Amino acid sequence: MSFFCFFDIMNKSQGRDSMKIKYNLLKTEKNTKARFGTIKTNYGTYETPMFMPVGTKATVKSLSKEELKAAHAGIILSNTYHLWLRPGPDVIAHCGGLHKFMSWDGPILTDSGGFQVFSLAKNKKKDITEEGVHFKSHIDGQNLFLTPEKSIEIQNKLDSDIAMSFDECPPASASYEYLKNSIERTIRWAKRGKAVHNNPNQALFGIVQGGAHEDLRKYSAEETVKLDFDGYSIGGVANDGESKEDMYKAIDYSIPYLPENKVRYLMGVGEPVDIIEGVIRGVDIFDCVLPTRIARHGQAFTRDGKINLNNAKYKEDLSPVEEGCDCYTCRNYSKAYIRHLITTGEMLGGRLLSIHNIRFLIKLTEELREAIKNDNILEYRKNFLERYEKK
RNA sequence: GCGCCGUUGGUGAAGUGGUUAACACGCUGGUUUGUGGCACCAGUAUGCAUGAGUUCGAUCCUCAUACGACGCC
Question: With a 7 Å cutoff on the CB, does A340 touch strand B?
């Protein structure tokens, strides 16, 4: 990489608006906390509620950017931990930042790596200290040390539009005492991360923890909000087999303490039903691996519930995955063909179902927006659930 | 025609005179929520070619029959 090339990249970077995320609350539904608004970014303005496809390693698995755009994707998510290991933040910086590297001309949110510490090192040795976390690489087992500062520095280099604070993501089964200490530490980490954050184009979000405990969520939210982030997430949900009730409690106990004029992001969720429940409770954006993961295992979201294309009953079914769906997959392929691809292990099968599942969740958020505008989200939920859960 | 060997589920096959016939694949379901893991979990032969016999008891021993492989005329 020549000096001139690097210089060119610097100019491009500085040529941007230097605008962090701006959230405009446009309407709050009359009967619930559900809200509709817009997120203004350097790459355009997007409406909430929004679902973000997950592209951990700088790719939404198996999908091209055209396919993501066709599914109406707005922000996509990528991951600090994975990109730190491969190809490394310096490589991505030299390639012009994450957008240019992966040819995505839309906004990107980078997760901090906090969740990977939890998920990669689950049941394995990890050492969480005040300074940071020692754990082992899933690739070659080498010892790694991730700190709040390091996570933010990497995200600065990746040049994502939204960076996440480095938090501890304790399992749902963690004790009250553990959670309390964990929250205190996460708040100290949030402060340290914010102190080194210096990318003028990049927003920084704080993360609320506290399990399903009302006082802990309140405390975590209030202390995090004091640090004045550009947006706030509710973390520590949808992990370790927690109940849906606990997930909804975590939301309910956090939302009242988050400012109205900032984005609220429920991390890692999810299932269609959980997205609806989240929106009703005041959440703006979601991300989840489910649409792409279940797709690779042959399953699809539909209005009539989740279906499994492995099932023998689809062997000769010429209908699309979901009747009336506007996605590329449903406009072009039958269940019979996709079942054939899935059962024979052909990669097109997972791709086609990923396209459908992502479009399904994005369309769900589009409909939720409309419902908020029309003050009828409770009716929307009722109708959706009646059909989705009947069997 | 004679001799010899063999016949276990959808498939490839292990195995034993005595409670539930190994394993793999396939098949049939299910699971997956800030993606190490195209993964994980469960079910899948009331029966071991057919008939008779020996035995307290046979898929396993004996005999006959059917089918198949090989060798000899």
Answer: no
- Asked if residue A315 lies in contact with residue A344, where contact means CB atoms within 8 angstroms, the answer is no
The complex's ipTM works out to: 0.82
Q: How many domains in chain A? A: 1
- Asked whether residue A111 is domain-assigned, the answer is yes
Which amino acids of A are annotated catalytic?
111, 287
Q: CA–C1' distance A310–B21 (Å)?
A: 30
Report d(CA A152, CA A198) in Å as an integer.
9
Q: Which of residues 349-368 of A touch strand B (CB under 7 A)?
A: 350
Domain containing A10 equals: 3-287
Per-residue pLDDT of chain A (391 residues; tens, 9 = 90+): 333 344 344 444 444 666 799 999 999 999 999 999 999 999 999 999 999 999 999 999 999 999 999 999 999 999 999 999 999 999 999 999 999 999 999 999 999 998 887 777 655 667 889 999 988 888 888 888 999 999 999 999 999 999 999 999 888 888 999 999 999 999 999 999 999 999 999 999 999 999 999 999 999 999 999 999 999 999 999 887 788 999 999 999 999 999 999 999 999 998 999 999 999 999 999 999 999 999 999 999 999 999 999 999 999 999 999 999 999 999 999 999 999 999 988 999 999 999 999 999 999 999 999 999 999 999 999 999 999 988 6
CA at A296, C1' at B40: how many angstroms apart? 14
Nucleotides of B under 7 A from a protein CB: 27-36, 38-40
Q: CA(A298)–C1'(B50) in Å?
A: 45
In a domain, A69, yes or no: yes
